[in-house]
Specification:
The protein is mainly alpha-helical and 115 residues long. 78% of the residues lie in helices and 0% in strands. The chain is built from six helices and no strands. It has helices at residues 2-22, 28-43, 48-59, 66-74, 76-81, 83-108. The longest helix is centred in the last third of the chain and has 26 residues, at 83-108. The protein is extended, with a radius of gyration of 20 Å. 4% of the residues are buried.
């Protein structure tokens, strides 16, 4: 488990370093995840121990949101000042995501046979 946890965190670190060095507009962990994906493609399968390690991380993912929740509570006054613009931004972006998803589904499913 320690070895595969080290692999996951090493991929994230490499992603962070590459993004920082090249100034890419992609978050480091996303690039690290892509690197891990390429590694697994080259390997041909997901090792059982890596799957168990990833499942352990997913089961405890709620703990990773504690710092973000703490930041929201600490800056509640600042967020309340910008409540209307933030609410509008969330509503508009969510609506746009739903519309784009529906349009893409319509376009991509035109050639697919009905099930």
């Amino acid at each position: 488990m320690i070895g595969y946890l080290t692999l996951i965190l090493s991929c994230q670190l490499v992603g962070e370093v590459v993004v920082g060095a090249l100034g890419l507009p992609v978050p480091g962990p996303v690039l690290g995840m892509a690197l891990l994906f390429v590694f697994l493609l080259l390997r041909g399968h997901i090792p059982d121990a890596l799957g168990a390690t990833a499942d352990g991380l997913l089961r405890n993912m709620s703990l990773l949101f504690v710092p973000a929740g703490t930041g929201v509570i600490m800056h509640a006054a600042l967020l309340s000042e910008a409540l209307v613009p933030l609410s509008l931004a969330v509503a508009i972006s969510t609506s746009a995501a739903i519309v784009v998803t529906a349009l893409m589904m319509r376009v991509l499913s035109k050639g697919a046979p009905d099930e």
